[in-house]
Structures are given as C-alpha cells and as structure tokens.
Amino acid sequence: MKAVVLTQKNAVEFSELPDPQTKNPEDVKVQLNAVSLCETDAKILDGSIPTKKHPIVIGHEGAGVVVDVGKDVKNTARGDKVLIDPNIYDTTCYACRDGFSNLCLSGGLMGREVDGVFQQFMIVPSRNVFLLPRNIPAEVAPLIQPFSTVVHGHRQVQINPGDVVVVLGLGVVGLMLAQLAKLRGAKVVGVDIVPAKLELARKLGIDVTLNSLEADPEPEVRSLTDGHGVDVAIEAAGVPDLIRKAMQMLRRKGTLLQFGISPKEVTYNMYDAYMKELVIQATRSSLPQDFEDAIRIVSQGKIDLNYQISKVFKFEEAKEAINFFHDRAKALKVIIKT
What we know:
By secondary structure, the chain is of the alpha/beta class. It is 26% helix and 28% strand.
C-alpha cells in the first residue's frame, strides 16, 4: 500500500509499505477514504513539533471504512464508516482510570509518536474508532476530529443562553468554537485580523465581528455589555498576548478558556485576576464522549462543517495539497481523498 511519509524536516515522500493485518483481538483494520491537514501537521512537517521517529506516516485527522476486525471487537463491523480517534492512551495510568485519557501519562498522537492516517490502510485499537452515520459525507468526516476538541473545550466552561462570549482568533477551531457558542445560546463576538475570516464568521451567523488591526476591540466589547465585560473569553489563536487581552475583556467572575496552543510564556496582571475572581481554564485534546457528541451534532445538522473545506485533492496529489495548505490565505482545511 502507499503512504505519505515524513523522512526528515520538510521532506515528504510517497512510500510503499506492507499492507497491515489484524493481529490482536481488539484490532480494527480501516481503509482510509479521507484525511485532512491541520496546524499541528504543519508544525510536524517543519520540525517545530518533533516526531518520535523518522520516517513516520503523517496525519491524525482521518476517516474510512472497516475492512477487518479482531475476534473481540464488538463496537464495529466490516463495512462500517468510522472516524479515527488519533489519541494514544494506555488505559492503565491514573489519568486514564479517572476518565481523562486525553491526559494519559504515556499518551501520544498518531502522526507524531506513531504512524498516522496518511496511508491507504491502518490498524487501530477498537477503542479508537467511532461509527459515522451514513449522512456524513466522506470529505467532511475528518473535520469532526478537530471539532471533537472544540466540544471538549466547551465542556470545560459554563455558557448560558444570553451570555456574551468573545472568541479571539477565527481560524479553523476559532470558527468552530464560535459556532458552538451560538448553538448554546450565546451572543458571540469574533475577533481576528484577517478580513476574509471576519466575513466568513458573519456568514456563519456570528453576531459581531471586530478587526483588531483597525482598532482595539476591548472598548467595543465593553460597549456591547454595558461596560461590564463578557461572560466567557476564548483564546483560540495560541498568541500569548491575547491571554492578557482576553482577561481584560472579562466581567467579574468571568471565565477564560485557553484553547490556543503555544510554548511561550504568558504574563498577566495577577491583581486583575484577583479583583475579578476570574476562572482560567485550559483544555487539551478530546475524550471518547467528545467524539460521540461531535458526531451527533454534525449528523443532526446543528453545525455545518462544509465551509471549512478549501480544496479536495486526490491521494497522489498529497504533496500539492501540503504546499497548498502552507498558503494560509487560501486554505482553511485541505481534504485528501485516499
């Protein structure tokens, strides 16, 4: 079978790999039919996120059809459409036992610690596949993986109908975060520096959009809330300076959801957090329940992810797809049909 392999930093090649076979009783063999690229993949490709080995099959957002199962598999069968959970977890550490497999002490990610989804067939444990309803198109299915992380992030914060939520950064996950906040009944303010993303947010029904290059968004946000500040602020860009800005926009007893990822340090005014009794909540990856809820929400048509697809490529065009994805002015999500 063919696979897209990262041989070294910024070097991607097609490789012929052995067709994998089920060996363990809980194994599921999946024929991939659609995969997608994300920011994490881009950082793995350029070396800013190191992989455990080279060469390694890239990618962690994928869906396909089950073609074989081990004798103890009960949650899926041959012919089922499935979404792959790329999270690696051991099920035995205290975090897994407490229900937080996303925080597994020996955890990892497909496409980073082990081979990922950019291959024609792969073997995964049965706990890492989730049934997909027939009404979810193949090209949309991989997008449910990042949406599951959005569902998990939302699970960390309380949002009531009528609350005001500001989302800082309207990239792929930022737009999803804003959509889900709307679904939960909030009035949503979206902040970004790219006019096209702000326009897209408006088309998706986001109530107010602000370009932070044109003006400081804080006064406008306060004017929308009678000067009190928002109930929830979500940092979705992974920019440390936006953490400070988000905290300034919050009302007393407000909640900051730190969704964006950055290895850089953050500094903020501790007195401001003290005076407001702010809740600062981080979020990481997703849990099995988040996959189930994300699939249900998309299947029921409550959130449409089709707008995320910038272009669809064939499997043999994977290198062209990666180059296209590097141009963020063109691409939200790139889908590769395997």
